[in-house]
What does this fold into?
Amino acid sequence: MTACTEVCLRRSVPSHDAPFLFALYIATRRQEVASWGWSDAQTRDFLSMQWELQKKAYDIQYPDACDMLIMCGREASGRCLIQESANILHLIDIALLPEFRGLGIGSHVLQLLQRAATERCIPLKLSVAMNNSAQDLYRRHGFYETYSSETHIAMQWQPSVAVNRNI
It folds into this structure.
């Protein structure tokens, strides 16, 4: 895949986009689950259950979240789940299909969200798994650690902080 010249976010339509979102979920977990030695049927059943549980958990924890498709031109390449309140923009989840990774799409999405946070004068926050290499991407875009546990790192980007760090 060559570089994507047009990246945008489009609100997901659950009834229409569910097959893509499930396929994306499988793509993000396939390598991890493959190492467990399960049959294809076991893997499919497990990932289907995990997908349903994740959707329910997000619905409970983030009832006002907006599910957005990440579009590369006219093709869906990923998704991000965002919740905005009066004082924070929260990137709950972001995922790209493997063939769209490493093309600058994630950076472009972060820049779109940073622009939105700047316009509203609110911070952008996220949480990333301790073993997820996306931490480096977030740091390159001015995110800093606010908390860490054994499994996750909470990170935040603040418009005024980002401006001061570039001086």
Summary: Strands lie at 7-11, 66-72, 75-84, 89-96, 124-129, 144-148, 152-157. The CA atoms of residues 142 and 165 lie 8 Å apart. The two ends are 36 Å apart (CA to CA).
